[in-house]
Here is the input.
Amino acid sequence: MSLYKGVIDWLYEQIPPYQFRGGDSYKPGLSRIKNFMNALGNPESELKFIHVGGTNGKGSTSNIISSILQEYGKKVGLFTSPHILEFRERIKVDSNEVNKQFVIDFVNTNKDYFLSNKNSFFEISFAMAISYFKLQKVDYAVIEVGLGGRLDATNIIKPLLSVITNIGYDHTKFLGNKITSIAYEKSGIIKKNIPVLIGEKNQETDNVFIEKAKNQSSKIFFAEDFLSLDPVPEFVVNFQKKNINTALAAMQILFENKISPKILRKGVLNIFKSTSFRGRWEKISDKPLVIADVAHNIEGFSEIIKEIYKIKCKKRIFIFGFVKDKPIEEILKLFPTDGIYLFSTPKISRALSLEELNFVLRNLDINYKVFDTLQNAYKEAIKIASKDDFVFIGGSNFTLSELISFF
Here is the structure.
């Protein structure tokens, strides 16, 4: 395979990612990735890592940390998932996505190995990222956990610092339906004698982390005990303040307050330039105001709705596309009853079908329409919106992926 598109299409077909297939593609455990890394010559042994887990905000926090490190003069590898528009978003060095030729060569060189050893798409992506970061000789590699923590492929790394942003109810099928069970899985990234930073205090989960840190002889920190950014830039919405403060605390721990406040602030201000960060309260247009966000669970939407109610507008129009296994009724109960709701479904097998969607929506007391495509839902929103109205797009990464490429 000599063309990049052909390689990516082959990967999606042969080894579908979790984001496309859901549980069928989820392969917890560390043995496969350990063996794969060993076959690659253990590139992870030569890198300095910051490991970021949690339920919500781990992608934002990872991007903010990367941006600050770049302002500090460091070359930074950044591994996040899933992508919004294109696979290479997952693997970046500073603001640059992984080289297409590297992706082609990595897959061609290793495809027989990961096919015969049944590696997951996520394991392949992670191994590719680590190999690329070694080749690029990055100073630091910021690694976002995929799902959970304890059994996540990224958990083979030995970081300088572990970060857990927060705990919420997501992926309960795999992580458990109790908040303490989820916290236990997330706490799996806490390693012996390596400090851990917790982004948000929570009476239900703090003891899980404190006990795990004690057992691992790891010093534990809480972000709220550190200095926050003051004043906060105008473009920062409230829920991102927690992620910013977590990233700032991580830098203060890692560098023992040697990074100046000026550099910390520049790192926050330049996040979009430094990391090409997308999909978090992203402004698509001004008149009407169109905002897109990848929030997809109760905790995420609970923060989003606070920002939505702050916006002065005549009408609120919502475009949603959900995947399966999301508590749609609970999510929509957070939103205003006088909103106009336009629904469709992303073009992936994991998406909630139109029939399933209609079955859920018919029991809700909202003004809604269902469309055959997300693009048609967006066209309807723009058609009925005046310049003083507000349009929100959300529900999943794939909803944003389809619509951002459509704009």
In short: DSSP finds 17 helices and 14 strands in the chain. The first helix runs from residue 4 to 14.
